[in-house]
Specification:
Layout lengths: L1 H10 L27 E5 L1 H7 L1 H13 L1 H23 L6 H54 L2 E6 L17 H11 L15
Parallel strand pairs: 1-2
Helix pairs in contact: 2-5, 2-6, 3-5, 4-5, 5-6
């Protein structure tokens, strides 16, 4: 029983019971891991996300998804412009009734075009916000790991043009490093191209 207690006390730096030897003074050596982090880094967060392979793929998917709405908007805008030109040219040749009818048609189509643009923009912003939130959560994990391993005390997002950072040295910008690490952690599997038809 004494042996167990004695071993435990030796591990704690104390002399066993019955020994007159003074307890040794423990020597504490600070390891690099115990030193507080002091480095400061900056990142253009939004640019970093959209520069990743996943960000580029998601952005292309959004563009393709809303392409029909954009084409419809452009078509209706062209039709509206043609009606406006017709009204302008017919100021002296059209009857008052015809001018009034044409003006009413222009007003209706103008409201429809405005509504289409607003609805499409709202839907795009909603989908884009969801995409950015999903990617930013994964980006934040990459940033935390990078900062921990490299002794950073703080990483500041300087994306906002009117943010609190007035100036920062380019040498502390870690955007490119984070993009590379993100792509390495979340590689995008490219879709194989369709095989070319065999020549007869």
């Amino acid at each position: 029983m004494w042996k167990v207690a004695g071993i435990a006390m030796l591990l704690l730096g104390a002399a066993p019971v019955g020994s007159a030897q003074a307890p040794p003074t423990p020597v504490v050596v600070a390891s690099p891991a115990q030193q507080p982090p002091t480095r400061v880094g900056t990142i253009f967060g939004q640019n970093a996300i959209t520069s990743t392979q996943e960000g580029q793929k998601a952005s292309a998917a959004l563009t393709a998804k809303f392409a029909p709405k954009r084409e419809e908007y452009n078509r209706r805008q062209t039709e509206l412009q043609q009606l406006q030109d017709q009204l302008k040219k017919g100021q002296t040749t059209l009857s008052p009734e015809a001018r009034d009818h044409l003006q009413q048609t222009i007003d209706v189509k103008s409201r429809e075009l405005k509504r289409l643009g607003e609805d499409s923009q709202d839907a795009l912003e909603q989908d884009e916000g969801a995409m950015m939130q999903q990617l930013s959560d994964k980006m934040l994990a990459v940033i935390r790991d990078y900062a921990t391993r490299n002794g950073y005390a703080v990483i500041i997002d300087v994306s906002a043009p009117n943010g609190p950072v007035l100036w920062a040295a380019p040498s502390i910008d870690i955007t490119n490093e984070i993009v590379k690490l993100y792509d390495k952690a979340h590689p995008v599997v490219s879709t194989p191209a369709a095989a070319a038809p065999a020549k007869k």
